[in-house]
Each structure stands twice: as C-alpha cells, then as structure tokens.
Design a protein that fits this description.
It contains three helices and seven strands. It is α+β, with helices and mostly antiparallel strands and about 160 residues long. Strands 2-3-4-7-6-5 form a six-stranded antiparallel β-barrel. The protein is elongated, with a radius of gyration of 19 Å.
Length: about 160
C-alpha cells in the first residue's frame, strides 16, 4: 500500500524543446561548471556506468577513485593512449526539461606521476566516504553537447 509520503512530485509536462548543438569549447566550459558526472567504461565486455565527481585540468577531465576500482585495473594494463571511455555530465531542470548535456569520448589513463597525482588530488575532493587515493585523466577525443531551450514561440505562421 502506497503512502502519501511515498509519492513523487510529477514534473510539469514539457512543451516543445529546441536542441542547439554546442561547440567543443562551450561544451567543456559547461562540463566544468558542475562537479558530478557519469563515467562509462567496459567491464566484463559490457558497458558500465559510475557516478563520479570531476574537475577539468588543462582540457582533461580528472576523477579520483580507489585502488580496487575496476577502471583502475583496466587503466593500469592499458597500452597506447589508454582505455576508451565516455564521460557525461548535465544540468537539466526536472520540471522544465531545459538545460544542457555534454558527452566526452576519449582515453582514460591512470595518473602515475607523483606530482601530477598530487595535483589531481588537490583538484578533486571525493564525495563518498572511501579512500580515493588514485586518479584518472581522461583526454577528450570527441566532445559533443546540446542545449535544450524552449521552442521559439515568436515564429510566424
């Protein structure tokens, strides 16, 4: 039996939205304006998604993680440019459905240089109650973003 307290507030029905493609620089600027995103990587041959917090550093996305994380073990053994990942962040109002979404596809590498690791630790403060002693840098290869705005109601008919 559902209780009144268990019901969620229903969003206001959204009207038409206009989708505006963002250039890479604007998309990265918006991604840098929030601290929470989702990293997508492959685990056991299947896509896996984890919410993480991040910072931008010289065009790279930096996240912190723990030593036993699946992504850490993958990046430790990766050769070449690193492990292919996707990173998504957004700010979309749940009531109006207005906002933006950015997806970055690139290569993730474990940060092993002690100076760079110290820098990454200073940039990203973990938001979970767990020791996050590792850092991963994501070098963007493809950056896409969309801005969702109210459809222009001033158009002539």
């Amino acid at each position: 039996m559902a209780h009144d307290d268990d019901r969620q507030v229903q969003p206001i029905p959204a009207g038409p939205r206009r989708r505006v493609e963002l250039d890479g620089a604007e998309a990265l600027r918006l991604l840098g304006s929030v601290s929470l995103g989702r990293i997508v990587f492959t685990r056991h041959a299947l896509p896996t998604v984890r919410p993480v917090n991040h910072a931008l550093d010289e065009g790279d996305i930096v996240i912190r993680t723990h030593e036993d994380a699946a992504l850490v073990s993958q990046t430790q053994t990766a050769g070449g440019p690193g492990v292919v990942v996707a990173y998504e962040a957004d700010a979309i109002d749940p009531r109006t459905h207005l906002g933006w979404s950015v997806v970055v596809t690139g290569y993730a590498r474990l940060v092993t240089d002690p100076d760079d690791l110290a820098r990454c630790r200073s940039l990203v403060r973990p938001w979970v109650e767990q020791t996050m002693d590792q850092a991963i840098r994501i070098r963007p290869g493809l950056i896409t973003g969309v801005l969702l705005t109210a459809a222009d109601s001033s158009g002539g008919a």
